[in-house]
Amino acid sequence: MDILQVSKWYLPYKGGIETVVQQIVDGLKTRSERNFRVLACNHEASIGHRSDCVGGVPVERIPAVGSLFSTPIAPTFPAAYVREVQEADIVHIHTPFPLVELLDPWLHYDACLVVTLHSVPTQTKWTMLDPIYQSALSSFVENAHRVVTTSEDMISAVPFLRRNRERCEVIPPAADVQKRVVSERERTHLRQKIEAGDKKVILFVGRLVYYKGVDVLLRAMADIEDAILIVVGKGPEQEALQELTSRLGIADRVRFPGFVPEDNLPIYYSIADLFVLPSVSSSEAFGIVQVEAMMYGVPIVNTSLDTGVSSVSRDGETGLTVPPDDVEALTDAVQTLLADQELRAEFSAAAQERAQEFERDYVVGQYADLYDEVLREPPIR
To answer: 94 near 20, Cβ under 8 Å?
Structure first.
């Protein structure tokens, strides 16, 4: 079984979609009769095609001269895609990826098509091209044997998914729930480094992009004085967020450590009293960082988007959910949890239990079953 994974980018570039692709190929590549290949674009501007191997999996990287709306500008990608799909038994496309979505419906090939929608299509930056883009997406999924979403909420939010409900599967992103043991020495060192003193610690982890809503969290911090906020991550909004921090007069209680290596993230989770994911747009489809925080028993404050975000950490069970882009509601939720140790303890225990439902081997196994299933079905094209 030859399975071609198609993604905008791949390791060493690492985002939510790239992590899912890695989890699938790493989790299933050793299982019998499954051979994986990855087709992606260079995550840095280049003019040369490159073939390499990541974790024993061949990766074809198509040159890109830049990006537009988080999509690589890769003129030679269509030709590479046409070539690569001919050799596959299953083509698994991770979207949004307009280059593929616009091209694939015009092609004829024998492989089974699996599509994973990682965000609500109606909320991507390409919606400025509606209704053309939405029509293309609808045609695209009509040729898919299965359309995977990260939550039931996403199916309900997208009309063309509702119309094809019988071909939709819900498979959440996976997390490695075998958390690393963090020593007291590591915890103490980090608290000293961020000058937390005896203050509570609020944590955010993610790319610093518009839809994460970090600016809303910073505005909330203007009224949350007895706590330190750590904003872990980097991205195009970093400078603007740091400037906002200064304008709000909260630089003394906000830390921007930038990118934190994966091995060190557990230390940050271990000192956090609260994790906040203040996303404001449905471009945030799930928020796997919530699961990572819950692994360490950290209560969550998230937002009520029409995606799977609020289904990961459940309101009143593992944390609190507030309307997106609502500074006052976010402030109230954070203050409520920081002030109530018993409630935090209750949510903490429930969070650790909930995290087990996203165990990596179980989730990846659902993709294995899906691949076996679609291969038994007749062609759609």
So the answer is: yes
Which pLDDT value is given to residue 292?
A: 93
Write the DSSP string, 34-51: -EEEEEEE-SS--SS-EE
8 A C-beta contact, residue 274 and residue 338:
yes
Distance in angstroms (rounded) separating the CA atoms of residues 36 and 367: 13
In this predicted model, what pLDDT tens digit does every residue of 276-302 receive, in sequence order? 999 999 778 788 899 999 999 999 999
What is the rounded distance in angstroms from the CA atom of residue 302 to the CA atom of residue 319?
8
User: What are the tens digits of pLDDT across the range 209-228?
Assistant: 999 999 999 999 999 999 99
**Ordered DSSP codes for 142-199:** HT-SEEEES-HHHHHH-HHHHHTGGGEEE-PPPB--SPPPPPHHHHHHHHHHTT-TT-
| Alpha carbon distance 256, 249 (integer Å) | 15
Residues sharing a CB contact under 8 Å with residue 102, sequence separation 6 or more, in sequence order:
136, 140
Mean pLDDT of 168-196: 90
Domains of the chain, first to last: 2-174+360-375 (3.40.50.2000), 184-358 (3.40.50.2000)
Tell me phi and psi for residue 146, to 5 degrees: -145, 145
* 3-class secondary structure, 275: strand
- From the list 185, 186, 175, the residue with the least C-alpha distance to 355 is 175
Give the Cα separation of 319 and 225 in Å (integer).
21
Pairing of β 57-62 and β 50-54: antiparallel
What's the order of all strands across the beta sheet hosting 146-149? 50-54, 57-62, 35-41, 2-6, 90-95, 112-117, 146-149, 168-170
Under the banding of pLDDT at 50, 70 and 90, the label for residue 103 is very high
Q: Which tens digits make up the pLDDT trace of 115-134? A: 999 876 655 555 555 567 77
Predicted local distance difference test score (pLDDT) of residue 127? 55
- pTM of this prediction? 0.75
What residues contact 4, with CB distance under 8 A and at least 6 apart? Answer: 36, 37, 38, 39, 84, 85, 87, 88, 90, 91, 92, 111
Closest CA to 201 of 211, 210, 192: 192
Residue type, 156: S
**CA distance readout (Å), 117 to 70, 120, 345:** 15, 7, 35
